[in-house]
C-alpha cells in the first residue's frame, strides 16, 4: 500500500495523518506536543510525529509516495517579532537610481506591539566602476549595522534581473541569505516588491535552518519522496523553494484546511469554516478554486498571493458576555483564555448547586459568564454548550458533549434571563451567528457567489458548534467534513504542487499569454510536479494590466483513478436534481465525454403578470463519480471533439459575445476533456482563446470527445 503523509505544525500540537494514496481514505492519525524549545526547533516534533505515524500504521519508508508539512513558524515569527534585521541594497544609476533610493527606503514594518522588521539601506551606482567592488562594500557596510539578511532591489528588474541576481550570488558566496525582488514578484511597482522581499528576507535565517534540519531528518528516515511544504495559497512547494521564498508559508495553516475541503470534501462552490476553540477562519471556494488576494503585513500591501481568509473571534470555547446577569454577546474570549473547563465536557455530578458569577479573563475585559459550584469547581458557559443544548451537535461530531451537564450549568443564566435553557442557548448562538453572517455575506458579495448554490462546509474540532446553526439561519445547506478535527492535516497530505506567475503586460498578445502559461507550468514541474499532471489556468486582469497563470499538479502519476465506481446516468441525474431542487424528469444530459456529464434543464421565469418571460439553462457539470465540478446559472453547451472544437467555439463566440461602447466582452469559455476543466474565462480576444485552448489540447487524439461550455460574463 502506498501512502501520503501530512504533518501540521501548530502552536500547541504537531499532528500527522496517513492517507491511502489510491482511495484517499484516512489510515491513521497521531499527535505530539510542538517542540518550540528543542535544539532542533519545530523540526524535532515533525520527526517525532513522523516516526510515530509510521510505527502505528506499519508504514515502511518505501511505502511513502508523498510527504508534506504545514507550519505556523513564519506566521509566528512575524506575530512575535522574531525576525532578522534586513539590509536593502538598492541598485541604479542616474535619475532613476535617485527615485529608486526613495522607493526602497522601507523603514520599519510594524508587527506586534513594540516589534517591527527593521531595515537599513545602501546604494550601489551601477553606472560605472566595478560592480563587485561596490556591492561588496554595500554588503559589508550593512553587516556592520547589524543586518544578517539582505534584499537586492532595482527598478525594472522584472525585465532585466542581471544586477539583482549578481548581488544574490555574491551574498551566497559569503553564506548570507539574500532575496532578489524579481524572484518575489514579476510585477512592476518597486516599492511593494521591495517591501515583500524585506518580509521574506526577515524570516529567511530561521526558516533556512528549520527547512535544512527537517529535510535531513526525512532523508535519514530513508524516505525517498522529497519533502514538500504547505504554501499560503493552498498548494505545496519544494524545500528548495522554501529556502528562496519562505514568505510563501505565511498563513499556510488556514490554507491547509481549504485544501482538505477541496480534495477530501470535493467542495466546488462554498464557504469553508475552520472552527477552533477561540476563533473561526472563513474562506471561499468558487469553481473548485480557492479565492486568493494580496496579503498585508504590518498594514502594508505586499505581492504575496495568499488565501483570502477572514478570522472571526468565535469558536467552540467562546464564552458568553453578560451584563446585569443576562447574556448580551458571545466571545471573543474563550474558556482556554480564562483557564476554565467547558461546562459541556464534564459530568453532571460535578456541577453542584451552580451559581452565576461574572469574571474578567483579561484586564479591561467586559464581564463573562461563569458558574461557581458549591464544591468549589468553576466552569465556563460556552458556545459548545449552547450548540449541544440546542441540538445542533450530533453524536458523531467531535464537539458532542454531555447535554445534561450543560443544561445544569446554563440554568442560572436562563433563570436570570426569564427564559428556558434552550431559549438562552439559542440567543447566544444567534449572537455568534451575527458575527459570522457579516463575514460570509461579504465573501459572497466580493466573489459574486450565488447564494442558492453556495454550501457551507465545517472543519476543525468546533465545526458543529458554529456551522449547523449558521447554515440554518442563513438558509444554506451544509456538511461537517469527514474527520473534521484533522481536516487541515489531511489537506497537507492531499495538497497539490502549485505555483503562480504574474507579469505586468499591457494589451497582452497571444504569445505573451502562452509564455506566462509555460513559465508557470515549468515552475510547477521544477517544484516537484509530474509533467503529465500539471494543469494551468490563465487570468487576464485588464484593469491592472496583469497576466496571471496558476499551475497545479501532483507529485506522481497515480496508478489508477481516484474513482471508486461510476454511477449510472439515472443516479447522476438524481444527484443533480437534489442539488438544483428540481424534479429529475426535467433534467437532460446535453453533452458528455465519458468522464464528465453536462446536465441542464430549461428554467422559465415570468414577470409583470406573465408579460415578460425569460428562459435560462442552468448547468451542473458532474463527473462519473457523482461530484459536481462546475455549476452555472445559465450556460450554453456543445458536444464537440478535439478536431472540431474551434468550429464549435466559433459558433459560441458569435452567439454570446457582447459588443458595447466599452469594447468587446467575450463569454467565459470552458473546455472539458476527460476530467480536466480548462478554464479560458477572462480572455480578451478570440485569438487568445484559440491559442491557449490549442496549447492545452496539444497531445490529445483528434477524435477525443470534449464538452464546450460557456456563459455570458453577466451570467457567470
Count of runs of 4 or more consecutive helical residues: 19
Global shape: globular
Largest sheet report: 6 strands, mixed
Uncertain regions: pLDDT < 50 for 5+ in a row? 559-563
How many strand units?
Answer: 41
Q: What is the typical, i.e. mean, pLDDT? A: 91
Strand order of the largest sheet: 3-2-1-4-11-12
Estimated share of beta-strand residues: 25-35%
Distance between the termini: 43 Å
How much helicity do the residues have?
25-40%
Report the structural category: alpha+beta
Radius of gyration, in angstroms, nearest whole number: 28 Å
Would you give an account of this structure?
By secondary structure, this protein is α+β, with helices and mostly antiparallel strands. Among the domains are: 6-58, Nucleotidyltransferase, domain 5 (2-Layer Sandwich); 79-208, 3-Layer(aba) Sandwich (Rossmann fold); 340-427, no CATH class; 496-553; 569-711, no CATH class. It has 19 helices and 41 strands. The strands form 12 sheets. It has a 6-stranded mixed β-sheet with strand order 3-2-1-4-11-12, with helices on both faces. Strands 13, 14, 15, 18, 25 and 26 form a 6-stranded mixed β-sheet that branches. β1 (3-9) and β2 (13-20) form a beta hairpin. α4 (131-144) packs across α5 and α12 packs across α13. The chain is globular and about 85 Å long.
Amino acid at each position: 500500500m502506498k501512502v501520503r503523509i501530512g504533518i501540521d505544525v501548530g502552536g500547541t500540537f504537531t499532528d500527522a495523518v496517513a492517507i491511502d494514496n489510491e482511495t484517499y481514505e484516512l489510515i491513521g492519525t497521531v499527535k505530539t506536543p510542538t517542540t518550540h524549545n528543542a535544539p532542533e526547533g519545530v523540526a524535532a516534533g515533525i520527526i517525532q510525529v513522523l516516526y510515530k505515524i509510521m510505527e502505528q500504521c506499519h508504514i515502511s519508508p518505501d511505502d511513502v509516495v508523498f510527504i508534506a508539512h504545514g507550519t505556523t513558524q513564519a506566521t509566528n515569527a512575524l506575530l512575535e517579532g522574531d525576525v532578522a534585521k534586513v539590509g536593502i541594497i538598492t541598485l541604479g544609476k542616474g535619475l532613476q537610481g535617485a527615485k529608486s533610493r526613495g522607493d526602497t527606503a522601507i523603514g520599519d514594518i510594524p508587527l506586534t506591539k513594540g516589534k517591527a522588521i527593521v531595515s537599513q539601506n545602501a546604494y550601489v551606482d551601477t553606472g560605472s566602476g566595478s560592480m563587485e567592488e561596490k556591492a561588496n562594500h554595500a554588503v559589508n557596510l550593512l553587516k556592520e549595522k547589524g543586518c544578517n539578511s539582505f534584499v537586492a532591489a532595482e527598478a525594472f528588474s522584472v525585465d532585466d534581473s542581471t544586477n539583482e541576481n549578481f548581488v544574490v550570488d555574491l551574498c551566497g558566496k559569503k553564506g548570507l541569505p539574500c532575496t532578489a525582488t524579481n524572484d518575489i514578484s514579476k510585477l512592476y511597482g518597486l516599492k511593494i516588491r521591495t517591501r515583500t522581499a524585506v518580509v521574506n528576507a526577515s524570516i529567511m535565517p530561521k526558516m533556512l535552518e528549520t527547512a535544512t534540519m527537517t529535510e535531513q531528518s526525512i532523508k535519514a528516515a530513508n524516505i525517498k519522496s522529497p519533502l514538500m511544504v504547505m504554501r499560503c495559497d493552498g498548494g505545496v512547494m519544494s524545500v528548495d523553494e522554501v529556502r528562496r521564498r519562505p514568505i510563501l508559508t505565511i498563513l499556510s495553516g488556514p490554507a491547509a484546511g481549504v485544501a482538505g475541503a477541496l480534495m477530501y470534501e470535493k467542495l466546488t462552490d462554498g464557504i469553508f469554516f475552520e472552527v477552533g476553540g477561540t476563533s473561526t477562519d472563513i474562506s471561499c471556494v468558487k469553481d473548485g478554486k480557492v479565492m486568493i488576494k494580496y496579503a498585508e503585513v504590518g498594514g502594508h500591501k505586499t505581492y504575496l498571493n495568499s488565501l483570502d481568509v477572514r478570522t472571526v473571534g468565535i469558536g467552540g470555547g467562546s464564552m458568553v458576555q453578560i451584563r446585569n446577569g443576562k447574556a448580551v454577546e458571545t466571545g471573543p474570549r474563550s474558556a482556554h483564555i480564562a483557564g476554565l473547563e467547558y461546562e459541556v465536557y464534564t459530568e453532571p455530578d460535578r456541577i453542584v448547586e451552580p451559581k452565576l458569577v461574572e469574571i474578567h479573563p483579561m484586564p479591561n475585559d467586559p464581564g463573562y459568564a461563569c458558574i461557581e459550584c458549591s464544591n468549589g469547581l468553576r466552569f465556563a458557559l460556552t458556545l459548545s454548550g449552547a450548540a449541544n443544548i440546542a441540538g445542533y451537535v450530533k453524536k458523531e461530531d467531535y464537539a458532542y458533549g454531555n447535554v445534561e451537564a450543560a443544561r445544569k450549568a446554563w440554568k442560572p443564566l436562563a433563570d436570570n434571563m426569564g427564559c428556558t435553557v434552550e431559549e438562552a442557548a439559542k440567543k447566544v448562538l444567534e449572537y455568534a451567528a451575527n458575527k459570522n453572517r457579516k463575514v460570509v455575506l461579504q465573501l459572497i458579495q466580493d466573489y459574486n457567489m450565488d447564494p442558492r448554490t453556495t454550501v457551507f462546509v465545517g472543519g476543525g474540532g468546533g465545526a458543529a458548534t458554529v456551522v449547523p446553526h449558521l447554515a440554518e439561519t442563513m438558509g444554506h445547506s451544509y456538511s461537517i467534513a469527514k474527520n473534521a478535527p484533522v481536516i487541515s492535516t489531511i489537506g497537507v497530505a492531499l495538497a497539490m504542487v502549485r505555483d503562480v506567475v504574474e507579469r505586468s503586460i499591457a494589451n497582452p498578445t497571444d504569445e505573451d499569454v502562452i509564455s506566462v502559461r509555460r513559465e508557470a507550468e515549468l515552475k510547477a514541474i521544477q517544484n516537484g510536479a509530474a509533467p503529465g499532471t500539471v494543469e494551468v489556468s490563465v487570468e487576464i486582469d485588464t484593469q491592472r494590466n496583469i497576466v496571471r497563470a496558476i499551475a497545479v499538479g501532483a507529485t506522481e502519476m497515480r496508478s489508477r483513478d481516484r474513482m471508486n465506481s461510476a454511477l449510472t446516468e439515472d443516479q447522476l441525474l438524481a444527484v443533480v436534481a437534489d442539488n438544483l431542487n428540481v424534479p429529475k424528469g426535467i433534467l437532460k444530459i446535453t453533452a458528455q465525454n465519458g468522464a464528465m456529464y453536462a446536465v441542464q434543464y430549461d428554467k422559465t421565469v415570468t414577470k409583470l403578470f406573465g408579460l415578460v418571460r425569460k428562459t435560462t439553462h442552468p448547468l451542473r457539470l458532474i463527473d462519473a463519480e457523482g461530484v459536481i465540478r462546475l455549476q452555472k446559472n445559465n450556460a450554453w453547451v456543445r458536444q464537440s471533439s478535439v478536431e472540431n472544437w474551434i468550429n464549435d467555439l466559433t459558433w459560441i463566440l458569435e452567439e454570446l459575445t457582447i459588443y458595447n461602447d466599452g469594447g468587446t466582452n467575450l463569454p467565459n469559455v470552458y473546455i472539458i476533456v476527460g476530467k480536466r476543466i480548462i478554464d479560458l474565462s477572462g480572455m480578451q480576444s478570440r485569438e487568445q482563446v484559440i491559442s491557449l485552448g490549442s496549447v492545452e489540447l496539444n497531445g490529445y487524439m483528434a477524435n477525443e470527445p470534449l464538452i464546450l461550455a460557456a456563459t455570458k460574463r453577466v451570467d457567470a
